[in-house]
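Teaching soon. Invent one.


***
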Amino acid sequence: MLPWSKIFILETIVEHIVKKIHFFDLAKLYVIANLKVEVSSYYLNYVWWILEPLFMMATLYCVFEIMLHQGTGNFVGFLFVGIVFWNWFARCIGNSKDSIYNARGLIQQVWIPKTFFPFVVVCQDSVKNLIVTSLLLVFLYFYPTPVSISWICLPILMIIQFVFILATSYFFSAITPFVPDLRFIIGTFTELLFFASGIFYDLDTMVLPQHRPIVYLNPMAGLLKNYRTVLLEGQWPDWAYLGYVFIGSVVFLLGSMALLKKLDYAYPKVCQK
């Protein structure tokens, strides 16, 4: 017969697992419901999720391939890969930073883990990004880039980026309700990071060798480089660098979750302002 202490520990573990299951089930329902509400305001419904990235890609292709003749060296494919995965990061951060404040009506009435709100936002934008990524792969299949076995690494890269995005979203959503002006600073920070991540240029070509280690401290710069290595060059990614980014993102994620948990009691009061 188990001692009472062990029974208590087992009950605590089971209760924790049940709560986690309910968390993800509720998140799934919210994501599906929010996506349906979003498309219900469009006449074309879900088709718009395809048309929007298609218009963006067509515009960039016309400008850089046809008008500016920058198509040499697979530049358009280089640009598309950078834009698609950067937009995933930027949209998640931009939409999640106010997620707790925007849910102030709900958190006044019932207790919900505050990680729930940015998590739902990130999942919504990630679902839409999967559609854009599929279109990107179709384009690259017909574009003069090698279709290589290295493409199987794409899900691994996306999982690492998802963890990094989630960690960053948790952190910004945790502090924005206390300092609302931070939303403007976060927007400016994201714009600066855009130009520092090598969207339109090759960091290894344009940045001096002694400065590259500093540049690649920005995880998005390194992730975009590895996306291009896998999708455009048909080579394996830098596993060591990705390992550092993943471990750092996990640590960042755990720290952001701890911050949200520590400040949980204050959000109902702070969000009344």
The chain has 13 helices and no strands.
